[in-house]
Description:
Pseudouridine synthase, 10-stranded mixed sheet, 16 strands
Amino acid sequence: MAHSETPQRAGGARTVRVPDDRDGQRLDNFLLGQLKGAPRSLVYKLVRSGQVRVNGGRAKAERKLAGGDEVRIPPVRIEDPGTPGRPAKGLLQAIESSIVFEDARLLALNKPSGIASHGGSGISFGVIETLRALRPDEPFELVHRLDRDTSGLLVIARKRSALTTLQALMREDDGGIAKRYLALLAGRMPDGVMSVDAPLHVGLRQGGERHVQVNQAGKPSLSHFRVLERRGGHSWCEVRIETGRTHQIRVHAQHIGHPVAGDDKYGDPEVNRRLRDQIGLKRLALHAASMEFALEDGRVPYVLHAPLAPELATVLDALGG
């Protein structure tokens, strides 16, 4: 179904009817598609100021739209997209070379540590913007996000149907998607599986930085940690998560007294300094290793893997047994 728009005067606001195949899309993502080249920060500013209206009323950026909704979009002057330029050549190459799987529905890549999933907060280009620059005719959409400092498997939808199916699976409590991470935790974790069932609340610190903590007012969050190996007095673990909260693994690891090595926000500064000086750990030791799910009502199974980042493998070798 095509977009339909009300007539408008030059430079005036326009009203766009949400097509049926965008049912369930967040307002901010819908606006980014309508305002080509607009930075995410501008979209949020327009929404916060009330200039964007849904069915005549104010709405939040995270609001899920329904097919047939009427969205008022104010006139926006966007600088020539050629002005800010494209992502740097090195970033384009890094993202292109990190693709580990693609088919007609999905693309998966092994995201390097230090690259954001999407732009915003002073970052012009994340993975999704870089992919769109590489292939401007593709309707790429992020299925989920990884923290900037986490490496590993990031799944991108190439079809709207795949995006909506995967997002529905992620909302299921019975684990519609199995996610497996690898992490180096500080200190000696006990043997066996340690399950952490602790609600997480996202707060904002001065300057708008997100800080997450265990808090009964937060959302239910469940992680399972299992030691794979002991390395230099620390624990190389497999982590499986049943919920996908912001910073979940990092905060749960901190909560049980074994923070993720190299974590500048929730970690142990002394352990981080020692690991940096002795074996050169200069990043968060957390890697999204695999995801399993099925599309087309369970008929098409996917098992996607992202090899461990070389710099983490080097750190593990340096730690020894």
